[in-house]
Amino acid sequence: MTLAIKDFFVPLLFFSSIASAATVEHVFQVKNVVVKPLCKEQMIPTVNGSLPGPTINVREGDTLVVHVINNSTYNITIHWHGVFQLKSPWMDGANMITQCPIQPRNNFTYRFDITGQEGTLLWHAHVVNLRATLHGALIIRPRSGRPYPFPKPYKEVPLIFEQWWDVNIELLNLQPAPICDAYLINGLAGDSYPCSKNRMFKLKVVQGKTYLLRIINAALNTHLFFKIADHNVTVVSVDAAYTTPYVSDVMILTPGQTVDALLTADQPIGMYYMSISPYISANSLAPVPPGHDIRSLIVYEGAKSTASPSMSLLPSGTNAIPTAHRFSSNITSLVGGPYWTPVPEHVDEKMFVTMGLGLDPCPPETTCNGPLGQHIAGSFNNRTFVMPETISLQEAYFYNISGVYTDDFPDQPPMKFDYANFSVRTESDYEMMFPERKTSTKTLKFNSTVEIIVQNTGIISPESHPMHLHGFNFYVLGYGFGNYDPILHARNLNLVNPQMHNTVGVPPGGWVVLRFIANNPGTWMFHCHMDAHLPYGIIMVFIVENGPTPETSLQPPPSNLPQCTHDPTIYESPTTNVDLSS
Ligand code: C2O
To answer: When you count CB atoms within 10 A of the terminal residue's CB, does the N or C end of the chain come out lower?
Structure first.
């Protein structure tokens, strides 16, 4: 079944200098197609048959309407990563938190306003690993008549980084998951991979012109460095929040992060590689393939096709962590720029949250592949989040249905320990290794200011994790290594021009301090944006209470919100371990 609505967006605003809002409408046909980025054909779920999926272009103030038609064999939700969803919490697309999934042969229409934010975001599926192939750019430009807070670029270019497995996508659910086979830039693996020599993303530039690169890390599990040979770029926005212009020759993006950067073609006419490479912050449980950089190319107008491109040297080994830290921690927000607001000084809710991996006891008579023969788990404050199974958490909250979750998420870990250098010395240390499995939430008063210190633990591995908050941007007041010191480190937090993000990489064995204003009633996930860590339960859910008026209160769900019914023909994650080597 298909709807007779074409993919389109409405450029109404060209005719008017008065800022008025348009409705931008898309149809997302989710269907399985065969693609071949490397040497083998694979059947993958896609939106409208393309990898990456369609780019959505809107202006700030527009209403976005997306009709999702699920013609795939999978349960689907689509999440609008970084969109505030102010007054539209039912449209967040967080599977089992704000809705049950759209089942095969079913439809659902997402409809929401995009207000108070500009820049580059992404949309992606929010069900198990399906975002590997179901993702695309979501570009929010200023209302007509409003300029960018930087010189107008000659052209704008989305650059989407993706992670590719040359196996059936269902195998990604295995524990341990298979190692990925490649990374793609705008769907292409480039000339450093077999069978892909002539399939490389090429950006044609005119010498002297300036381009706005809209860069998205849509990889499932890997932070990526990005570098252009012989060129610096100027970062002007991260996660759709404007920054002080920041000149750099290299950048890092965690899964889910975006960067907008100006690139001026100011070098001699020629060809220059634009490359990405994975960032290994610590011994990782989801190993990345060794070897080469992943390349795309800048081609200057007039360049000889026989010229050999300039190479870029990406950070690796001992300079990886300092390079990542320098780029991440040097970004500041554009004070006085569009949508900038000063950091609230008074904090109403202060949380200290330990975050990282742990273990879940291996059930009797089974073998488990995790460390010490156990299952791997993850935790916030020693709790592993368990997803609701029969109804979404937001519906359970709205209808006051008991037994789905408990509102008792703790503001502190159950005990103090040497977080970053964990080792088992006492009986109670074992407890920190085996977190408690629970569906627990933390309730916040409407409009309260929340500070979260996220402390990465060294339990199992101290690797960097990207923390993503649905429904809000947060200020990042500081980043550091080791254990957070509430006196020493608190003194040096940036309360003047801290960067704003929806996703932040917690340094390996380190911490970040975040602050946000809980101004949007609903239930909002806060989780690790490494997809492999979602089933480990590195997830929290905030419930933001209603404000004083109907306008500031959670409204009933749309009448056609998908319901959870069990259909055994639908693909679900395997619960047993399968040996991949056979
Ligand atoms: Cu981009 Cu909850 O995710």
So the answer is: C
